[in-house]
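Researcher: Can you fold this with beta-D-glucopyranose in place?
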Amino acid sequence: MKTLIMNLLKIKISFVVIAVLLFTNSSMCAQSNDSSIDKKVKDLISQMTIEEKIGLIVGDGKFLHVENPEKVEDGKGIIINDQRSRLVIPRLGIRTTAMSDGPAGLNRETCEDGKKDCEYTTAFPTATCLASTWNTDIVEEVGKAFGNEALEYDYNLVLAPGVNIHRNPKDGRGFEYYSEDPLLTGKMAASMVKGIQSNGIGVTLKHFVAHNQQANRRYYNAVISQRTLREIYLRGFEIAVREGHPKAIMPSYNKVNGYYTAENPELLTTIARQEWGFDGLYVTDFDGKGSAVAKVRAGSDILMSGNMQEYNELYRAIKDKTLSESTLDRNLFYILKFKLTSPRAKGYVPNSKPELKTHAKIARAAAEEGMILLKNENNTLPLNLEKENKVALFGKISYYLIAFGTGSGTVRSYKYRVSINQGLQKAGFKVLKNMEASYTDYIEKIRRENLVPPYFDNPKMRKDNGIKGNQAPPHFKNRLVAFSKEKVLSKEEIKEYESQSDVAIITIGRSAGENYENGYLPITQIELELVKNVSEIFHAAKKKVIVVLNIAGVWETASWRDYADAILLTWLPGQEGGHVVADILTGKVNPSGKLPDSFPIKYEDVPSASSFHGLPVDKPINTFYKEGIYVGYRYYDSFNMPTAYEFGYGLSYTTFEYSDLKLSSDTFSPGIKVTVTIKNTGKVAGKEVVQLYISAPTTEIEKPVHELKGFAKTKLLQPGKSQQLTFELDEESIASFWSGISAWVADKGKYEIQIGASSTDTRLKESFNLPRDIVVEEVHDVMYPNSYMKELSRFDEK
Ligand code: BGC
């Protein structure tokens, strides 16, 4: 190892020199592959005034040609996150970038009821639900449809997908992100990028990077070791950039290791541009903090949503020569290159008529694979539609699907959302009419009374949301039903419903959203009583009880799950949710989703529970990522911590046999091919998600007991049919990040390959040997923590 270090040091010195040259080069004159575009861009830049240059950088033209730019309110200017293309420099033909939010579908303006020419968009399953499909093809299909809506409604930049890691279930934005695992996150994001960009428009990977909480979200500093940053928080972005080639990235609001991400050239230029080859546009998150000059120098190209203070700061800096015009020109290069290569600039005329019916089918197909069967005791499901036809449908959310979350990641312009009640009735079930009427009244009452929901009813929330008295403000419209109290039912009422029905279905819902740590609101006493009483009463009558979880993210199930016979997790499944629940309950669709996150037994078991969301609690300044690389199953499996449901878990109505695990060689050189055969041994057709974990030697540095290094989903296998799956492992997939020498290194020794149906359900194992250490890639020694922190270690004394 000594020689390895010496060699590395030598390589690193020359590497630093090259890096410096590259940096100088890229900051002075960025270049694209297309020389005619380069020429046009340079030509345009040469004709622009300083005011126009700054005007494009600050708010994408927001203040250009406005009579009183000072009067444009911050965040409410002419350019918002739902703005179509408009000429901002008419004499040069330069238009706005026309951005709209995602990631669960194009989030346009709300369509007023009854408005005929409304531009509706499809509400697709949210990112966590998509990740649960483990199917990159279906995610790419969703991306194609989503991107087509953006194209036809005249947008050329979608502010999605979200690529952050699920560090802690309380984060209100978790539903906008995929998983606790960087490989699954990266692969899903790359597929979404490819799908959306196949329409010629661009995506914006967000929020770069380590945006894992909402508390003090515009200021907090995430303190993360270099290794954890590289292996966990940057890795998903890296995969999405290298494989998907996104046209834009959004630096996040927060700081990482002392610097705002939007002000950090090490992150934006050294890592993403130089190491990963990112050649797109940086669009900062809207109304973030920090200095405009520092952001522009670091490589943030467009400052959204832009304000006069930023405009003036840049103008002054140019005048007093603390900022060079060539820095502006470098940013403008990326901005204009994006604009000139957009479909609109190439002459495409949007038709405002995307194929919403076809897109609805894609949303439905994705939700079919994204829902997860958590429990199915004694084959409770599928139900027999003939014999178990009369449904006692409990829970307000059964009649009001939470299709998506709140905040910018919602889909305001959805046309409809199918509730579980509607879905069941369409499929042929008879939902008790008296229950339907009583719950519908209850929902109407919630709307009518418009009371502040319990979660928001405390001094801080009241102040933050401008709540006065007991009335919810208008922007709570979409939160009202989901966040209000569950309806209380007496045992007598439940008994009455039991006597009229064949089966009980209870839906429990949890929404979540931007600006709040509302991703993990515990089960309430009313909900617990409901589950308990319904179960006791229906079980006494030998009838089944099914719980449907329409929740945004990881949740606590251990305290109540024993009551239910079956549990179906829908996540926030998009507009078609109710149909899909019905199809799974009847067996028309065999569930094939698996968990992209571990479900802890209790919140305190989450590895980041004690450090989330930083200190001081009221307004965190620093959040120490003390759990280090031990996020999700990397923690639970390495520390033998039991979970309620482990990462990668999910049931099917059929069974699968795993056999014939073969490695192309027992020695790794230069890679290894792994094949395994999966056979459907049950009675119905189904798809299986197969996971490949590697347990690597820990001779040089510590590692989790195993890590996901590959996954695949079979096609729909008929009973008795088999499919061989192949995984290719390269050097990169067996390397860990060694911060001491700033390199990805694969340690020599024995590697165990585990093929499993989940992170703990290993079905087959084989090993290979790596005869010598491999330095897979040396990278820059950047972004080190600004504060000392002791990270969790497997080898700490107990
Ligand atoms: C969010 C972004 C979003 C932007 C524009 C910000 O508050 O963090 O994700 O794209 O607003 O709506």
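Model: Folded with beta-D-glucopyranose in place. The pocket of beta-D-glucopyranose is lined by residues 81, 101, 159, 206, 285-286, 408 (CB under 6 Å).
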